[in-house]
Amino acid sequence: MPGNATLSVDGQTYELPTLVGSEGEKAIDISKLRDRSGYITYDPGLGNTGMCKSSITYIDGDKGILRYRGIPIEQFANHPNFIEVAWLLINGRLPQPEELAGFSAKLTANAPLHEAMRHHFEGFPVNAPPMAVVSAMISTLACFHHQFLTIEDDAHFEELAARLISKVRTIAAYAYKRSQGRPFIYPDPRLRYCANFLHMMFSMPYDQYLVDPDIEDALNLIFILHADHEQNCSTTTVRVVGSSKANLFASCAAGVSALWGPLHGGANVEVMEMLDKIHKGGVTPEAYLAQAKDKSNPARLMGFGHRVYKNYDPRAKLLQQACERVFAKLKRKDPLLDIARKLEELALKDPYFVDRKLYPNVDFYSGLIFRAIGIPTEMFTVMFVIGRLPGWIAQWKEQHDMESGKIVRPRQVYTGKTINDFVPMEQRIKA
Ligand code: CMC
């Protein structure tokens, strides 16, 4: 246990308490710093700031470790379904059979949208970005389920979580159907979570989509691997909004907006665009890699590198294997997969990437799997939303239950004008 930290400033010395997490990560507690010293800390991007204590997800980026509630991500590769992982994230332990069955039943019962809400989709232009539709419709859930705007107890919260996790999949599928001008397909209570999503995406009233169990498995794995990633941009957004005691629907709708950005959830789209550009532009993988290394060229090897992982992203490893399985099963060839394989092979032995610890991240292979399943590029980030939702819910609940219950309200270092008199309009008009 480290002792106090000492800060000396303006001739004064302050003792600041320290704390250590269960995996040994150390922090200096500055919560009383401003009161005592008049100073705040300055940390743009908050890369050195722990905004909460959390017991949900652990990442060690140097070692390539990701664990949900202590369980290594690799252990999720063959066993559970996404709903079991969602329950684990939200409740902190694996469910008993009857708990999982009860939760699954709630999901099934809540898959359909209110009919009036279904009609809302018709108001969006066909070419509306699906992320805008999904964010709007998650917000709209608050209008139809306002009994959940405040949480009464854990059972009430579980009911809410089940509703949201179930309905987001229907919302996502309807956003896609709307973009295609195709009829909405009601959820089928006989199907499991991923199969039901694929059914709503691809069935037509006159043509039932047959769900391939291997495709269902691949999708299940993708959702699991995206389910939480500690305090990333969208999760932090959900927690910040939740800290004002805003309801879960509003907080998650804000999370969708944060995820939309290309620096966050949008990266899997950029990987596909890169692969497509290499393919169509006749650039060789070798030549593209040279561009990515050239500092005067804005090109980057998309799907490589990570702010936290300085080792192989453990999610990427699992997705690479899943990708090979899906393509083998579908007996499909995709020139973009060949390009991805070659880029990875070259990058992993290139000193530029090796020295900078740049390895494939979660986005490198997920898009190729989506493409093989038939999910269009504009839906990729929406897929990320479905996967990440259990993490947002668990993190919102943790924030909600925090003892201090403080609203997140950072400070700033003001650099604008000092006092500056108002000038009436007539005196402002230039002569
Ligand atoms: N291609 C070429 N060079 C790169 C790349 C890349 N993909 N990533 C980093 N570098 C270089 C960078 O130019 C810098 O070089 P130098 O030291 O010579 O200046 C060095 O590697 C360190 O890079 P950085 O920008 O300091 O790394 P970062 O931790 O700030 O950025 C990143 C991480 C993910 C933004 C970056 O690696 C990147 O832009 N990757 C491509 C985009 C991508 O795949 N994003 C998805 C991230 S995973 C999503 C998620 O988990 O939610």
Query: Mind summarizing the main beta sheet?
Result: 3 strands, antiparallel
How much of the sequence lies in strands comes to: 5-15%
How would you spell out the order of helices and strands? EEEEHEEEHHHHHHHHHHHHHHHHH
Q: What is the total tally of β strands?
A: 7
Shape descriptor: globular
Unreliable residue stretches: none
**Main β-sheet, spatial strand arrangement:** 5-6-7
Distance from first to last alpha carbon: 69 Å
Percent of residues in helices comes to 40-55%
Overall pLDDT confidence:
95
What do you see in this structure?
This protein is mainly alpha-helical. The chain is built from 18 helices and 7 strands. It has helices at 33-37, 82-91, 97-109, 115-120, 130-144, 154-180, 193-202, 213-225, 233-243, 248-260, 267-281, 285-293, 314-330, 335-348, 351-355, 363-373, 380-400, 425-428; strands at 5-9, 12-16, 18-20, 26-28, 57-60, 65-68, 71-72. The strands form 3 sheets. The protein has a 3-stranded antiparallel beta sheet with strand order 5-6-7. Strands 1-2 form a two-stranded antiparallel ribbon. A two-stranded antiparallel sheet has the order 3-4. Strand 1 and strand 2 form a beta hairpin. Helix 2 runs parallel beside helix 17 (380-400) and helix 8 (213-225) runs antiparallel to helix 13 (314-330). The longest helix is centred in the middle third of the chain and has 27 residues, at 154-180. The radius of gyration is 24 Å and the shape is globular. The termini are far apart. Carboxymethyl coenzyme *A binds at residues 229, 232, 264, 267, 292, 300-307, 356, 358, 361-363.
